[in-house]
Amino acid sequence: MESRQQWNLFWSMPKQRCQVYALCGAFSSCNNNNSGACDCLTGFQPTSEKNWNKQDYYEGCVRKTRLQCDNASAGIGNGDQFLQSRYSTFPEQNNMVFSGVGCESACLEFRSCTANGFENNRCSIWIGDLLNLQLLGQDDNTTGKTLSIRLEASEFPNEISPPNKKSVIVAVAIAVSAGLLLLGLIIFTIMKARRRTSISTEPASDSLIIFGYRDLEKATKNFSEKLGKGGFGSVFKGTLPDGSIIAVKKLESINQREKQFRVEIGTIGKINHVNLVRLRGFCSEGSRELLAYDFMPKASLDRHLFLAKDSEPLDWKTRYQIALGAARGLAYLHENCVDSIIHCDIKPENILLDVDNCPKLADFGLAKLVGREFSRVLTTTRGTVGYLAPEWISGVAITPKADVFSFGMMLLELVSGRRNFEHTSDEEGTFFPVWVARQLTKGNDLLKLLDSRLNGNADLEELCRICKIACWCIQDHEIQRPSMVQVVQVLEDILDVSLPPIPRFLQDISNEEDHIFMFTDATISVT
């Protein structure tokens, strides 16, 4: 308005400041009613206090305490927990939505998952930064949405109630009992140590035990019952004084100083997942280096697939659950540990079964166990022929996608009950993994791929799904392969999977009648 030298406001957007996208930055909530527009979420603090005090909220907030990714499999009670808050809307970005319950468990499966919410029987989990959260105002007529934000357990406020006489008496009684119990344990430990009849309990980490060599020698009856032999040494069955059964691995050809050995063992000992074999303890006396694991009564998967033709075969439901469990264990190693661990030798021999056929990855720490020389390991090939990704042979840097390739090859063996290096019985005599990819492309009867001992008893949808993801896992270039987290989501039927191309690398191998590799079950080292 030139005459008045004024502006005449007739329309403006946004109507409220909280409608401005990412006004408060990451991990902050916006409030239209307060003079200060933004507040950090519980457990977070401003990235820059100086800018925050100037009401410049663009940089958002950061965590006060880092998450404990080690506890992803241990449940919500230990380590990371979830704090529920109500907001006008859910965050819009970086979320995955799927049907069913168990939102918190699903979020804990991902190292980068920061929050979850449940609405209309659908679970949403958010990966990365949380943006555009808006607190419910006093005059807000909406019911709001409950968002559970992932925090480290120490960030939760302690709810302290006023003490009363009864609680004081109970507390004193517990303290006295605990003191007497502790005194008794100390006396008992000293007496046992003097008699030298017990296993050493020197702590190596929060849960590991340092065994004496004589202790393990006695437990295994002088290493008399051999369970098997692998690339890192032989495994023997043993029994501890408390009656628990263990599997003792005598390491061979690992030249490390004791300090380095213990540092790596401490790392492995903190890893805990339902689909990983638990390390009970270790022995390191001079050149004697041994590992003690939980004993798996049903041995390794290869015995059920290839070495027990006359016994009752694993049914399809069991095989599918083994595939899913093994995928979860491998995804944990890749994604949920502080340092990503590459297994380097995924094959049926390294998948053990407990009494309920729950799969447990074995030898998952031994690639990291030689970690001080790991760069040299990557310049030579470490693994088993028949499961090696092309990059092992081409000499490029190895990533967790090498494990994905091996896992895909193992999946095909789980389906067929046969070694992948066997040729098919059709007129083409094709290398089996290539034949699977061709069958998928042509839309042929997939029951031809199934272990003949199952007599066609399998869920066709699951069979198609597992064959597709297996063929994606064995693609030539690692960028084409899925991550193990994506493999888990496909097997859980959360993600759809399209038809894969035929791997060129394996197709070339199948066309070489006199090719130089002998596909045997042996650990190799190729420069």
From TrEMBL:
Membrane topology: Single-pass membrane protein
SMART domains, per database record: S_TKc
SUPFAM superfamilies, per database record: Protein kinase-like (PK-like)
ATP-binding as UniProt keyword: yes
PANTHER family: OS07G0415500 PROTEIN, RECEPTOR-LIKE SERINE_THREONINE-PROTEIN KINASE
Protein name, as recorded: G-type lectin S-receptor-like serine/threonine-protein kinase
Family matches, as Pfam families: PAN_2, Pkinase, S_locus_glycop
